[in-house]
Amino acid sequence: IECIFNKRYYFMYLKNSFILILFIILSCQPVEILKPVEIDTARFEKISINAEKIEVNKKYNSVFSKSNIEDQIQKSPVNLMAEWNSQNILKLGNENKLVINILDASIKKTEIMNVGAKKYEERTIFNYELFYLVEYELYDSGGFLIANTTVETSRSTTSQKYISLNETEIIINDLLILAMRDYINETKNQLSIYMGDYLSF
Question: Which end of the chain, N or C, is less packed with Cβ atoms under 10 Å?
Answer without folding.
Answer: N
